[in-house]
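Lecture notes, unit on binding sites. The following record was shown on slide 14. It pairs a sequence with zinc ion.
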Amino acid sequence: MESCIFCKIARGEISSEKIYENENFFSIKDIHPKVKGHSLVISKKHLDTFLELPDTFSSGFLDALKNTARKLLKEEKAAGFNIVNNNGKVAGQLVNHLHFHILPRKEKDAFGLGV
Ligand code: 5GP
Ligand code: ZN
């Protein structure tokens, strides 16, 4: 995808500092963090939504989520974290390239999912 912002980051056309990387995923800090340390786990391949994620990516997907979350917990001295994945405009997906938000959480921080 020529104009997709996350494809450009994946191809290295836009520089980024990787928190974690494996064969099919990488993670970076969100440009507009909702909480300190808010990060994104992004597929290297352009996939529109979670439903396009091939089963063969499963272990790499879990590996990227877990290792990114572990690093953020340590870095931010957080007590917990949320994983959020928006699919479709109605669900708040702004970038149509598969990604997962990881939000490190602390007592009395200014974030809540309300679910
Ligand atoms: P969505 O609403 O699609 O689930 O979330 C997209 C996220 O990508 C937003 O939190 C937004 O701040 C983040 N984002 C958009 N463009 C960039 C970018 O160029 N670099 C980084 N690091 N994050 C971005
Ligand atoms: Zn893309």
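Take-home: The radius of gyration is 14 Å.
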